[in-house]
């Protein structure tokens, strides 16, 4: 009878595990990868003593590794390794009245309440749209990709449809393309295309390459024009699908995700550090209020749009049902 083979047990890590355990990154970068804010803003919060690392106030330039504990805004996190082998990117058609934030003290609806739930990951918004701006919002589980898409050095184009009150002369358009002074520095439109002009209002397609707060609205405001409608229809090489209804979302396939990474100069994803929330933390209950735009009536069955909806947006959307709905990965209404 031959001797039975024995299985040797060892506590030695494999090469890939050892590499992951030795991975360390700057604290503010890890916080940004987890979608807790921009790197610059997070550095300021660290400097102000608002972030704790392993029970002590964190300092600027601190590095973290897997297993470290972090506290921010009274919430506890554990640093973990993300291989990003299954990173996802969502296209979300943001409706009016929804905030691009995780929580709102006033209980207003937020984008993150509408998204598919994840296990072991979290959605990171690629920039923000203000409460009155609608249209394309990208969200991803890959913090590096999100930061690359938002960073000014990437020069990623953002295209918007906007309705401006009044008749805009050609001289104003040339001035906005050449550049004007805003409170936070000079800014300009990279491109302006006229859709329609009238005595009461005009429609334009505009392109910018920065993501400063309310930049499109402030550019028009600098010339004395009020933007009454604003909708983002493109971010980089990703366009808002015409058939995607407001409040719904769709998932980019693997090929489109890779094309998006290539578009911002990123190669194959490498392991990085992110944050995993500590489970069973107590949280205050939130009373979410449903948002109803004022002055809008029930959509008519034959149009599927609110009365008074601008035909320029209607022509672009071609939506059957324009009422805000909970986001899901496509498919017919339930």
UniProtKB/TrEMBL annotation:
Database matches in SUPFAM superfamilies: Alpha-L RNA-binding motif, Pseudouridine synthase
Presence of keyword Isomerase: yes
GO CC term, one of those recorded: cytosol
RNA-binding S4 domain boundaries: 25-84
Segments of skewed composition (Basic and acidic residues): 287-297
Catalytic activity as recorded in UniProt: uridine(2605) in 23S rRNA = pseudouridine(2605) in 23S rRNA
Annotated segments matching region Disordered: 1-20, 287-307
Domain of life: Bacteria
PROSITE patterns tied to this protein: PSI_RSU (PS01149), S4 (PS50889)
Gene Ontology MF terms in the entry: 23S rRNA pseudouridine(2605) synthase activity; RNA binding
Keywords, alphabetical: Isomerase, RNA-binding, rRNA processing
Enzyme Commission designation: 5.4.99.-
InterPro entries assigned to the protein according to its UniProt record, in alphabetical order: PsdUridine_synth_cat_dom_sf, PsdUridine_synth_RsuA/RluA, PsdUridine_synth_RsuA/RluB/E/F, PsdUridine_synth_RsuA/RluB_CS, RsuA_PseudoU_synthase, S4_RNA-bd, S4_RNA-bd_sf
GO biological process, one term: enzyme-directed rRNA pseudouridine synthesis
CDD domains: S4
Matches recorded under NCBIfam families: pseudouridine synthase (TIGR00093)
UniProt record similarity statement: Belongs to the pseudouridine synthase RsuA family.
Record's function text: Responsible for synthesis of pseudouridine from uracil-2605 in 23S ribosomal RNA.
Protein known as: Pseudouridine synthase
Organism name: Oleiagrimonas soli
